[in-house]
From TrEMBL:
The keyword Transferase does not apply. This is Ig-like domain-containing protein. It comes from Sphaeramia orbicularis (orbiculate cardinalfish). SUPFAM superfamilies: Immunoglobulin (SSF48726). The chain crosses the membrane at residues 534-557. It is found in: Membrane. The gene is mcamb. Keywords: Disulfide bond, Glycoprotein, Immunoglobulin domain, Membrane, Repeat, Signal, Transmembrane, Transmembrane helix. GO terms for molecular function: laminin receptor activity. One of its GO terms (cellular component) is plasma membrane. It holds the Pfam family Ig_2. Residues 1-24 form the signal peptide. It is a single-pass type I membrane protein. Residues 43-137, 145-248, 254-332, 343-421, 428-517 form the Ig-like domain. Coiled coil: none annotated.
Length: 608
């Protein structure tokens, strides 16, 4: 109670003192002034006093880092003095006399070390002494911040958080702050997960350079994430923020699963194909990839196994294992390969059958395959039967070579074939030739051919009607029997026999050849070469003779020694010589007569 009372008493005294004229000096200053380095700072000192300016004294001080008050300026009504030897000596000036109740301390070229407290002290002869203080705050805009990510891949399996990158901002004041972001989330220290390592360097200029390293455990998804730094710094009257570029890091993650597949061929595989099996993990770290099939292990560098000319033995399950070379963890997968096959076709009962005429023939054709097959029988390139069984009645028409083709419709180019030869036993049968009546010019050569069906292959003998054997020119076995050719020189009309025989019987065919004379043999087709030459020569001689004859006639006509039936009148009128009589006499005769007349001009008319 006593303490409170004495307090009130003291307050009352002070109020009285002020009110009654004995007023003290008052100084007013801003708490702080903020400027950029290199700019100019102006510190205003306002004061009030009853005293006129004549009795006033103004002094400026600053507080040294050691906490001492250091005078830099003095002024009174008579003089203004800048103290020598202080850091401000050359850079300060004070304007105003103080008459308006304020003076301004101007500091040019502000430095970082100018960030101190300034004191304005005002002393009045009558009102006493008072001081005010202003803190000068200086600022430097930092350089653009930089970011650098770790260039090598970063494994997600590191024991402790690996380094992700470093951010740096240089020459800021006051000290800028760096904050790391992953995508849009700021990062903070989390033991064992995220570690931020900041460091600050004080440059000789007094400015700060700041770096921040980020260490962080990554997960696979971080491959798609980005990182950046945000830098905050103060400027006079504000707080600013600037961001770095975004960076990506290469995240290394081992496979957690592998995929194995047949890359080629697409679709069904058949024996002989080149098969390519691919295996790839879902990771991106170095791994050893092995592909195994029935204890047959193949290490591959790129997870590709190429097998050329596969057989059905290559069918089965293919395992692929991928072992990470860093963690030694292994993952595996498998795929099943099936190699389709089509064995050679087999014809039963046998490939060459001998059957009696009229007998029923039944043959089968089969090829073992992993897939459905389709069988057709062909004869002379034409399909004659579908399905694997061939049934037919043995005749000379059905005898011959059959091809059975077995194919797998599902796979193009998968096909096999086998032949079946059916020989139908029976006596020879000579096929009727185009013509057996042949006309040939004398001394020419004619080819006679004989097509014989029958099995066993008949023996062919060519002969003439007088029993002479003709040597066979050529002979070949055909599907159905034998084809035999003989060349005959035509010397006279003749008959040639083709006699065919085998164990079952005989057959014969007669060819009648008529020899015709070369002269009369005008038809070019059958005229032998020598004959043609003779004819051409004869024709040329005839033409020459006619030409000579023509010339002679023309010559005689010009001489007027001849007259045709048409020119008779003119000639008689023009010519009046004695020849006229001869001509007149001939005029009744035929052309031949005239010609004879001309030829035998001097003959007497009685001779004709
Ligand atoms: C002091 O000087 C500065 C420029 O030198 C001027 O802008 C300012 O108005 C002056 N102040 C007074 C009180 O004279
Ligand atoms: C980072 O990488 C991902 C995937 O490659 C990409 O989509 C994204 O745009 C990248 N981000 C940056 C900042 O480069
Ligand atoms: C920097 O961080 C410190 C501590 O969190 C804080 O006091 C200061 O104001 C920050 N500076 C900037 C420029 O954000
Ligand atoms: C076993 O591997 C070898 C080499 O890759 C290969 O040539 C062979 O065909 C394989 N055998 C089987 C049955 O897979
Ligand atoms: C093959 O892989 C499948 C999964 O793709 C799995 O279910 C199966 O057990 C594997 N087979 C063998 C024999 O390992
Ligand atoms: C060929 O057949 C004919 C007609 O049957 C016969 O006259 C002739 O003697 C036979 N020739 C031979 C060499 O057998």
């Amino acid at each position: 109670m006593a303490v409170r009372d004495s307090g009130y008493l003291l307050f009352g005294l002070v109020v009285l003192f002020h009110t009654w004229g004995a007023l003290a000096v008052e100084v007013n200053m801003e708490d702080r002034v903020e400027v950029f380095i290199d700019d100019m700072a102006q510190l205003t000192c306002k004061f009030t006093s009853e005293e006129g300016i004549g009795g006033m004294m103004i002094q400026w001080f600053y507080m040294t880092p050691a906490g001492e008050k250091q005078k830099i300026y003095y002024q009174d009504s008579t003089m203004k003095v800048v103290d020598r030897g202080t850091p401000f000596t050359d850079r300060i000036s004070v304007n105003g006399t103080g008459a308006e109740g304020e003076v301004v301390l101007t500091i040019r070229d502000v430095q970082q070390r100018d960030e101190v407290e300034f004191i304005c002290l005002v002393k009045s002869l009558t009102d006493g002494i008072a001081e005010g203080r202003t803190k000068l705050k200086v600022f430097a805009l930092p350089d653009s911040p930089t970011i650098e990510g770790v260039q090598t891949g970063i494994s997600i399996n590191e024991a402790s958080p690996p380094k992700i990158g470093i951010c740096e901002v240089k020459n800021g004041f006051p000290r800028p702050n760096i904050t790391w972001y992953k995508n849009n989330t700021p990062l903070h220290n989390i033991p064992g997960e995220v570690r931020l390592v900041p460091s600050t360097t004080s440059e000789s200029s007094g400015l700060y350079s700041v770096t921040s390293e980020l260490y962080m455990k990554l997960v696979k998804e971080d491959k798609d994430n980005y990182f950046y730094c945000e830098v905050t710094y103060f400027v006079p009257g504000a707080k600013m923020m600037v961001e770095t570029n975004r960076i990506n890091v290469t995240v290394l993650y081992p496979s957690t699963a592998v995929k194995v597949w047949v890359e080629s061929p697409k679709g069904e595989i058949k024996e002989g194909d080149t098969v390519e099996i691919h295996c790839s993990g879902n990771g991106n770290t170095a791994a050893e990839i092995k592909i195994t099939h029935r204890d047959n292990e193949t290490s591959t560098e790129d997870g590709v196994l190429v097998m050329k000319s596969v057989t059905r033995a290559h069918s089965g399950v293919y395992f692929c294992s991928s072992m990470d070379l860093y963690t030694y963890e292994e993952v595996s997968g498998n795929t099943t390969v099936f190699v389709n096959f089509l064995d050679d076709a087999v014809v039963e009962p046998e490939r060459i059958m001998e059957v009696a005429q009229g007998e029923e023939v039944k043959a089968t054709c089969n090829a073992l395959s992993s897939l459905q097959t389709h069988t057709t029988w062909l004869k002379n390139g034409k399909e004659v039967s579908k399905g694997h069984i061939l049934t037919l009645e043995a005749t000379f028409d059905t005898a011959g070579t059959y091809v059975c083709v077995v194919s797998v419709p599902e796979i193009e180019g998968m096909t096999t074939s086998e032949t079946l030869r059916i020989n139908v036993q029976g006596p020879p049968e000579i096929l009727e030739p185009v013509s057996t009546e042949i006309e040939e010019s004398f001394d020419s050569t004619v080819d006679l051919s004989c097509d014989v069906r029958g099995f066993p292959a008949p023996t062919i003998v060519w002969s003439t009607s007088d029993g002479k054997i003709l040597p066979t020119t050529s002979q070949e076995e055909t599907d159905e029997g034998v084809h035999s050719v003989v060349s005959v020189r035509v010397t006279s009309d003749m008959i040639a026999f083709c006699n065919a025989s085998n164990v079952y019987g005989t057959d014969a065919m007669a060819f009648s050849i008529k020899a015709i004379k070369a002269d009369t043999a005008i038809p070019a087709k059958t005229v032998p070469k020598e004959g043609k030459g003779v004819i051409i020569a004869v024709i040329i001689i005839c033409i020459l003779l006619l030409a000579v004859l023509g010339s002679v006639l023309y010559f005689l006509y010009k001489k007027g020694k001849i007259c045709g039936r048409s020119g008779k009148q003119d000639l008689t009128k023009e010519k009046s010589n004695k020849d006229n009589i001869v001509v007149e006499m001939k005029s009744d005769n035929t052309e031949e007569a005239v010609l004879l007349g001309v030829n035998g001009e001097k003959l007497p008319p009685s001779d004709q």
